[in-house]
Amino acid sequence: MAEAANELSARLLERQVDPRAVCALLDSATHEQRLGAVRSLHKTAQRRLYDAVEGFLPVRLADLVPPEVSDMAPVRHFGRNTLPAFRDFEKRFCRPEGLDPEQPDHLYGFNFQSVSWLTGPGYFVARNSAEGPEVRIDYHEVPPVAPAGWPEIRPNEQGLSRFVYGFMVDTLRRVSTHVTVGRAARKGRDMDSWFVLCQPG
Q1: Is the CATH number of domain 58-198 1.10.10?
Q2: Could you give the dihedral angle defined by the CA atoms of residues 162, 168, 173 and 179, in that order, rounded to the nearest 10 degrees?
Q3: How do the domains of the chain map onto residue ranges?
Q4: What percentage of the chain exceeds 70 in pLDDT?
Q5: H runs (alpha helix) in the chain
Q6: Phi, psi of 168 (to 5 degrees)
Q7: Are 170 and 191 in contact (CB under 8 A)?
Q8: Cβ of 63: how many Cβ atoms within 10 Å?
Q9: Least C-beta-crowded within 10 Å: which of 24, 49, 89, 196?
């Protein structure tokens, strides 16, 4: 596990990050190795990774919740963000009922972390970007329903959620088959905040 993490960090320190080499490294690793590698990335590495994979590989909603997964069945993406604390988290996605599994036009989801009881669950609706092969995770909109076992749906503009998820949209880019990287924006302005996600598989 440490070898994959060390190699990934070294590649992201190179003067010119090669997204193909990063993709090959992560695709050749096990899930445990990939997760350990992406959760080892600090802020500068995540920023460089996000910039390097712009336009590299497309990511669409059907990649985040594969077609073979049942409607409303959760898919967990294990992540790490660049916040000062509570960096390890998950984004959990599901496909609403009645959508084309091959080409859904939106997904529901929320953020799972150890302090969700304080910050709120951070519900969102994800859609394919109209501007390119990326996904937008929109916190302005919350799902009308959620799978059994998910927390109570709450808006993101109330209480402490306002300062964590309020007025935010994340942009998600593909790194490899199982790994994506994102950047947060608030009120249309990019923030100094990134995250990486690792999907089992």
Answers
A1: no
A2: 10
A3: 58-198
A4: 98
A5: 2-11, 19-27, 31-38, 43-52, 61-64, 116-119, 161-164
A6: -110, 150
A7: no
A8: 17
A9: 24
pLDDT, tens digit, 9 for 90 and up, residues 174-189: 999 999 999 999 999 9
Name the one residue in this structure whose structure tokens are 């009881």.
117
pTM: predicted TM-score of the whole model, two decimal places: 0.94
> Residue 196: what pLDDT?
98
DSSP string, 143-166: -S---TTSPPP--TTSTTHHHHTT
For the cut 90, the answer to whether the pLDDT of residue 135 exceeds it is yes
Average pLDDT over the chain, rounded to an integer? 94
Q: How far apart are CA 9 and CA 38, in angstroms?
A: 9
* CA atoms within 13 A of residue 178's CA, in its CB half-sphere: 23
Residues in the chain: 201
Phi, psi (deg, nearest 5) at residue 167: 65, 30
